[in-house]
Amino acid sequence: MNIFITSLLFLIPIFLLLSRTRKTSKRIPPGSLGIPVIGQSLGLLRAMRANTAENWFQERIREYGPVSKLSLFGKPTVFIYGQAANKFVFTSNNSMLANQQTQSFKMILGDRNLLELSGPDHKRVREALLSFLRPESLKQYVGRIGEEIRKHLEMYWQGKQQVTVLPLMKILTSNIICSLLFGLEEGTQRDKFVACFEEMVKGIWAVPINLPFTRYNRGLRESARVQDMMKELVHEKRLQLEGKSASPHQDLITFLLSIRDEDGKEVLSEKEIVQNGALSMVAGYETSAIAITFIIRLFANEPAVCAAVLQEQQEIAKSKASGESLTWDDLAKMKYTWRVAMETLRMFPPVFGGFRKALTDIEYDGYLIPKGWQIFWVAPMTHMDNSIFPEPSKFDPSRFEKQASVPPFSFIPFGGGPRMCPGNELVRIEILITIHYLVTHYEWKLAADNLFSRDPMPEPSQGLPIKVWPRELS
Q: Do the domain assignments include residue 257?
């Protein structure tokens, strides 16, 4: 009898636990976690490289519905999509969801960058970055950005019969960012910084295996060099500010150093300035370069669109004296060009999607998302939704003639809500000025096939080689 009672007492907690697990598991979204550790990661990566990722997710939606579970990069994940899903991801408070970056991203960029912070720290650092990157502040840098673009075209495009667009656009955007964010002008210091930075970025997207000769290992080493160079920059600029030989608006670093609290102390620590400076370069380096590259690709495929952009840009060029820089007011006139850019971002968003982490058990659309699980959102699922954007595969800039006609949280190349990319205005300026000088000075046609793949960002076949020649203006 005692053995029976002891066994019963032992089995009751197990029975209750199993009952609770069974009850809970019924509320977890449908789907499969797949093979341990690997899950569906390889299938998704293959689909992205083959440019069939949207179909891959559509198959999941047909089988499981708009909410389903899977395993990505070693972690249980819930995939959600749609306007309501985007709103949930981008507007949920910090006690419910947190940013979830890959291990390699965190180890290379550090734990004090904006994408790793939450709560008051996230708000403090974001507000500091936005103060520099808001339109009112960026107005004064339009001329400097234009000068970088003109120098780039003279060096890499002028007199050439063929160029490869994507690597050149990466050079251009890294030069703009080095000048604007760090005050690094042409020379060996900037060249060394950019070379280290490029290796660091490769490590961010690598498998986090820290063995010699791996991309991750090189990324870690170059990250240490980049941060050492940035610490030296911070020290130099702090001395310049103290000696009043530098303006607080000289570049991002001096600006962040100049922000003080009520007690006169720096709002951001040196570590936060260094890591968020590096993050700003990562965010603006590839995304802008890819966006401009796909617009150039588009113009070769859509001559009528190119002609309409050219007409708008020629009107602006006629109003400028020879060698005169573009101004903020000129950018405001580029309405059609920006609609073309937004339609390009809709069809080919540089960032395919992203992760959030559930900080607590979350009820969503009738399902339970357990604490600690990842939530995965995907931009093309609303960008290419026929019920939101009719004939989504057709390039149609008129979709953006009236911004109010675009449903909220459906167009998300820069994210949304309080987590929207703080550098989206800088991206707009880079795109508009670059397109202005390109279309008014050059014509081109594709010199390779029209394919592209994602790894993880979209890249045209062979980096988009084009045959280029000077534009004959009437």
A: yes
